[in-house]
Amino acid sequence: MSIIQDKVVIITGVSSGIGEATAKELASKGAKLVMAARREERLASLQEEIQSSGGQAIYKVTDVTSHDQMEGLADYALKEFGKIDVMINNAGVMPLSPVHEGKINEWDTMVDVNIKGVLYGIAAVLPAMRERTEGHIINVSSVAGHLVFPTSSVYSGTKFAVRAITEGLRQEEAKNNIRTTIISPGSVATELTDHISDAELKASIKQQSEIAIDPISIARAIAFAIEQPSDVAINELVIRPTIQEL
Ligand code: NDP
Description:
By secondary structure, the protein is of the alpha/beta class. Helix content is 46%, strand content 16%. It is built from 7 helices and 7 strands, in the order βαβαβαβαβαβααβ. The protein has a 7-stranded parallel sheet with strand order 3-2-1-4-5-6-7, with helices on both faces.
């Protein structure tokens, strides 16, 4: 039997890209999924697709920037499935721009979704995991959480933060038998670049993304981290297209 069988897994940002691929991969391995994002029609159609292939999935419309809604998501998982084995904080946004353009609203959104969303996700599941002295928190950072390039200052800042928070959490919670994993993808073919507001920059980033790999590659890496025996923690994985230099 797969180690993933019957694990209760919460995933945020499941309505497209990496989250959607991960939900399908884990469902095919027998996980009980609790899926979250803001677009309900996508959540409903994904649930239908998973259920019609024999998988188990429930969903709750959730904005990760709301602490209350993230607590509500964890409560829903506990109410429906009685435990939370894995939390995957995947939701993220990447409206790249140079700092001098001062796109304050986009900075706020990146900080709120990419950093505070991850913190709220951790806060929502940690008490129950500490009580059981068991659990796994997987946070999606980026290659941009390891390096910076022009226009990525704020996005990279948020993704560096995800790595710092996850490593601190690892050290604090090791004694409580709670595993942490940082996932740092390179270029992956998703909707992430759609929200870059500068048309020229968007076109150039989209061109660079021609080498992008399918989100299933990241989903498989996440499944690999979950599949390890409980005394083994895969703390960090960087997954790039083979031909991506930076
Ligand atoms: P997508 O744009 O395809 O997916 C992003 C997901 O995040 C969507 O499901 C979206 O759902 C959700 N989301 C955005 N804002 C919120 C919010 N406020 N509350 C809840 N959900 C939200 O991009 P990816 O799949 O590529 O992104 C997934 C993660 O991977 C992100 O953290 C991203 O930074 C990271 N990443 C991606 C890379 C890539 O090349 N694609 C490279 C490195 C890292 P909805 O709008 O329905 O709420």
